[in-house]
Please model this.
Amino acid sequence: MFCRLAAQELSLLSPRLSQENVRLVGIGLEELGVEEFVEKKFWAGELYIDEKKKSFNDLGYKRFSIWSLPGLLLSRIARSQAAKGRERGVGGDLRGDGYQNGGLLVVGKGGKVLYSFVQENPADHAANEDILKALNLSPAGGEQATVAPSSAATCGDGDVCSVKPKSPASE
Model:
């Protein structure tokens, strides 16, 4: 349910991003459930599947453990997002790999990472406001917000970006 809800919320930005010629690209980790995901229009952007999880590994997106996941699912954010999902009729699909965490990158022209978000909880997702700020866009199309580019991730000439690991001092 959390993946579907996050995709649905991010998809709310699709019209605004399209106006600005910004692509909305999602990378899933398996074919299982994709047909229903597409049919129910949880995602309004391009969708790719990375069954080998190369992009997830290269970006340093970790897997939740069998020991950490139950506690994370009982957290306040997970309970709140589950209630929101039920309210919206999103429904859940417990098939497949529920242990892989993910994230979000906003990549500007030339491959510069403007914003990086890494999931700490299965219910986490980047706030739409933060994504718009990274793109210097306001939600209503009015005044533009400005933010400094993220140094948490870098994108080079290769086919994938990489996320810099957190240092103990930055936590």
User: Anything to note?
Assistant: Strands lie at 25-28, 46-49, 103-107, 113-118, 153-155, 161-163. The radius of gyration is 16 Å. Residues 141-154, 162-171 have pLDDT under 50 and may be disordered. The helical segments are 2-11, 14-19, 34-39, 54-58, 69-73, 76-88, 128-134.
